[in-house]
């Protein structure tokens, strides 16, 4: 191709030059090509078809234009220009006239722009690129265009990133313009390799900014959220909890963890993410929580258990953002439980789409509870309070079941053509699930089994004193569940009867799930529904609840919760008769001076028992840490900060708990094929101040040999 270009331009002096030399030192204007050979133009960029050959010249005998084919810095080009001075081309004259007019004012004073060295130009060019990427990330603008998955339409729908760079050049970015107006015509503004390198640099900068305060406070906890699909892979969102320098409990998003491989591989990857990318030390990790559901929850729980083996003080706790009963149900992998939980999620999404759908449900509630207006009002109120995520979700679901089925059937029938086809179809799918006896039976079992942990879980999300006293009530909860397990025949009989009566009211046939017969060959004996549901639902649900509660509230976790007696208000409730020395023994290495802790603790009790009459005692860890004289009790202060990191404590400052909300918004607003793990990190942490100069320096340090690559479209 290069030889053909040289031949058409009648440049015999360039015949021996390599294609790389020609591409680097010589240029040819787009006007020498037929219009049908040009696929894209802009003020500074021209993209040619792969088979483009120059055929248009002002002087047919010469077939070249001096100024447009020569680079003045090349020795060969200088010689060629001297030889051709006798026959200057028209384009050369025009360019010279334009240059003179731009460089001189009316008074003849030289106004030519100052020459910018290559290093400065490259830095400013990179700065412009970083500025655009950061802006796109914080505004959640996908990098790629809508047609990137369809190659045949790529030519007329460029990537969003390339389009914004071109717009920036047109708007007057001189550094971008200077970088590209003298470059090969097919040079991309930013290659995919360079863009990926930039994304990695910005990720590192964001993490460094986030982790600065974590490192200052040393201690932290890990929270793993539900599995999501990012970049064609299943990944786990990872959050870090820590106490900042103002003593607020914060939760920050630090990235997505690839969810592939066995438990050992994921564990190693998670620890690597925390230690290498975030720069934290796992020996200071004091808590773990996960919000996964279904099959993925089993693997994540195994990962968490493995980390607890390596770091015993990284105790597993429930997460304050999820009610305990929902957490327990989400970790169950049984078919019936999965049916119930997935249907509840569908209901939540369904009614959030339009207030008219909510009104339809309220009308159905009024019909079924005509004689009990008080109960109807309670249920209507519950429908506006995220009832599918509460401690009493399963109780409310049982009370609403008849109204829900009536509402779904009414919407699906769509007799007055009020609803769209999509809404009517979704209502049909939900009604089919609600009218399945497996759903009814599992819902009743979940309601009755988790009723024993409902009050306990509610207290865990309550005030600090409620969390403290909840730790003492766990024994009673486990005792009740063990009693159910030991007398499972009796309890199952009552629960099965309740489910049968509810199904009869809804005209739902009592039967064994169809899937059961598909999995097992015909044995000649027909299994009774009551026996099937005892073995497949009641027994597994009860045993799982017992085991999961025991795992969530290990000995170390309970000791940590008992250490909350250091909070003055809880001390007062206990009449200052506490024994923290035993419970805080697991954290003795976290204290500034463990030897003086007993004496310091004694002084701490005396201070609040005798020195603060008619004073309201601080009731939370945050209030206690804000005291001006807490600095005189360094061990107590250090211990309270360690405890505060545990995921079981609620995030009380709205400004410190936006990360999870922004992650949810990103996943809801961004189509799967447009999601990018780096761009998600920028969007979720949009409040971070971005220093473009430091990004450029870091980029040049990480990729010193990186240069814009020449690619043909």
TrEMBL record:
<keyword id="KW-0479">Metal-binding</keyword>
<keyword id="KW-0238">DNA-binding</keyword>
<dbReference type="InterPro" id="IPR025398">
    <property type="entry name" value="DUF4371"/>
</dbReference>
<feature type="domain" description="THAP-type">
    <location>
        <begin position="1"/>
        <end position="57"/>
    </location>
</feature>
<dbReference type="InterPro" id="IPR052958">
    <property type="entry name" value="IFN-induced_PKR_regulator"/>
</dbReference>
<feature type="region of interest" description="Disordered">
    <location>
        <begin position="56"/>
        <end position="116"/>
    </location>
</feature>
<keyword id="KW-0862">Zinc</keyword>
<dbReference type="Pfam" id="PF05485">
    <property type="entry name" value="THAP"/>
</dbReference>
<feature type="compositionally biased region" description="Basic and acidic residues">
    <location>
        <begin position="75"/>
        <end position="110"/>
    </location>
</feature>
<dbReference type="GO" id="GO:0003677">
    <property type="term" value="F:DNA binding"/>
</dbReference>
<protein>
    <submittedName>
        <fullName>THAP domain containing 12a</fullName>
    </submittedName>
</protein>
<dbReference type="InterPro" id="IPR006612">
    <property type="entry name" value="THAP_Znf"/>
</dbReference>
<keyword id="KW-0863">Zinc-finger</keyword>
<dbReference type="GO" id="GO:0008270">
    <property type="term" value="F:zinc ion binding"/>
</dbReference>
<dbReference type="Pfam" id="PF14291">
    <property type="entry name" value="DUF4371"/>
</dbReference>
């Amino acid at each position: 191709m290069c030889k053909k270009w040289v031949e058409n331009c009648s440049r015999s002096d360039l015949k021996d030059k390599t294609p790389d030399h020609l591409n680097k030192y010589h240029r040819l204007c787009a006007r020498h090509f037929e219009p049908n050979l040009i696929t894209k133009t802009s003020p500074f960029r021209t993209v040619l078809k792969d088979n483009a050959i120059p055929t248009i010249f002002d002087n047919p005998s010469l077939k070249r234009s001096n100024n447009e084919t020569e680079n003045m810095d090349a020795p060969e080009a200088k010689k060629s220009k001297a030889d051709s001075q006798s026959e200057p081309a028209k384009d050369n004259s025009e360019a010279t006239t334009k240059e003179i007019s731009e460089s001189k004012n009316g008074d003849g004073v030289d106004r030519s722009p100052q020459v910018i060295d290559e290093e400065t130009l490259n830095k400013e060019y990179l700065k412009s690129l970083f500025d655009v990427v950061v802006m796109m990330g914080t505004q959640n603008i996908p990098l790629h265009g809508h047609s990137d998955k369809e190659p045949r339409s790529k030519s007329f729908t460029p990537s969003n990133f390339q389009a914004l760079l071109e717009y920036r050049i047109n708007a007057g970015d001189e550094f971008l313009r200077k970088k590209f107006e003298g470059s090969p015509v097919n040079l991309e503004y930013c290659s995919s390799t360079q863009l990926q390198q930039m994304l990695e640099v910005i990720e590192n900068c964001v993490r460094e900014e986030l982790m600065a305060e974590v490192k200052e406070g040393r201690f932290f906890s890990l929270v793993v959220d539900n599995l999501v699909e990012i970049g064609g892979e299943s990944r786990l969102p990872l959050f870090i909890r820590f106490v900042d320098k103002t003593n607020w409990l914060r939760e920050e998003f630090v990235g997505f963890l690839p969810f592939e491989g066995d438990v050992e591989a994921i564990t190693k990857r998670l620890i690597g993410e925390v230690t290498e990318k975030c720069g934290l030390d796992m020996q200071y990790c004091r808590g773990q929580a996960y919000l996964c559901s279904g099959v993925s929850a089993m693997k994540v729980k195994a990962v968490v258990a493995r980390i607890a083996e390596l770091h015993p003080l990284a105790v597993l706790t429930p997460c304050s953002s999820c009610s305990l009963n929902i957490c327990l149900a989400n970790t169950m992998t049984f078919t019936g439980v999965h049916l119930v939980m997935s249907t509840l999620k569908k209901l939540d999404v369904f009614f959030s789409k339009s207030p008219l759908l909510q009104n339809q449900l309220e009308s159905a509630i009024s019909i079924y509870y005509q004689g009990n207006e008080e109960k109807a009002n309670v249920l209507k109120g519950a429908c506006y309070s995220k009832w599918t995520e509460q401690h009493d979700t399963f109780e409310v679901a049982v009370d609403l079941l008849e109204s829900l089925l009536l509402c779904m059937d009414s919407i699906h029938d769509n007799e007055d053509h009020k609803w769209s086809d999509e809404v009517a179809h979704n209502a049909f799918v939900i009604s089919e699930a609600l009218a399945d006896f497996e759903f009814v039976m599992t819902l009743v079992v979940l309601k009755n089994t988790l009723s024993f942990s409902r009050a306990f879980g509610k207290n865990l999300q309550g005030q600090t004193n409620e969390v403290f006293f909840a730790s003492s009530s766990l024994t009673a909860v486990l005792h009740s569940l063990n009693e159910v397990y030991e007398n499972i025949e009796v309890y199952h009989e009552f629960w099965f009867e309740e489910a049968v009566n509810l199904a009869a009211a809804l005209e739902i046939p009592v039967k064994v799930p169809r899937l059961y017969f598909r999995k097992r060959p015909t044995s000649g004996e027909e299994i009774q529904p009551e026996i099937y549901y005892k073995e497949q639902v009641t027994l597994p649900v009860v045993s799982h609840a017992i085991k999961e509660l025991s795992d969530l509230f290990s000995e170390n976790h309970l000791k940590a919760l008992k250490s909350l007696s250091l909070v003055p208000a809880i001390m007062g409730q206990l009449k200052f008769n506490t024994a923290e020395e035993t419970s805080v023994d697991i954290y003795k290495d976290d204290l500034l001076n463990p030897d003086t802790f007993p004496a310091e603790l004694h002084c701490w009790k005396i201070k609040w028992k005798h020195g603060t009459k008619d004073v309201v005692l601080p009731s939370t860890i945050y209030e206690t840490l804000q005291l001006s004289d807490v600095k005189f009790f360094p061990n107590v202060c250090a211990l309270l900060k360690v405890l505060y990191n545990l995921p079981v404590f609620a995030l009380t400052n709205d400004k410190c708990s936006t990360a999870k909300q922004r992650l949810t918004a990103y996943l809801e607003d961004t189509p799967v094929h447009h999601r990018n793990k780096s761009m998600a990190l920028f969007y979720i942490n949009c409040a971070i101040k971005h220093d473009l100069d430091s990004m450029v320096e870091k980029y040049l340090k990480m990729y010193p040999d990186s240069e814009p690559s020449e690619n043909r479209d």
